[in-house]
Amino acid sequence: MQPPSTTVLDDLMPDSAAVEDGELVVGGIRASDLVAEFGTPLVVYDESTLRTQARAYREAAPGALIAYGTKAFPSVAVLRLLAEEGLGADVSTVGELEFAVRAGIGGERLVIHGNNKEDELLRRAAELGALIVLDSLEELERARKTGATRFLIRVTPGIEADTHEAIKTAHHGSKFGLPPDDAIEALRRLPEAEGLHVHVGSQLMHFGASLMTVDWIAGFVVRAQSELGWMPRTIDLGGGLGVRHVREEPSFTVSEFVTGLVGELGRAWHLQGLEAPALILEPGRSLVSRAGVTLYSVGGVKRASAATTYVTVDGGMSDNPRPAMYAARYTALLANRADEAASAAYAVAGKHCESGDVLIERVELPEPRRGDILAVPVTGAYTLSMSSTYNAVPRPAAVLVSGGEARVIRRRETVEDLLAYEA
Question: Which of 307, 353, 392, 423 is catalytic?
Answer without folding.
Answer: 353
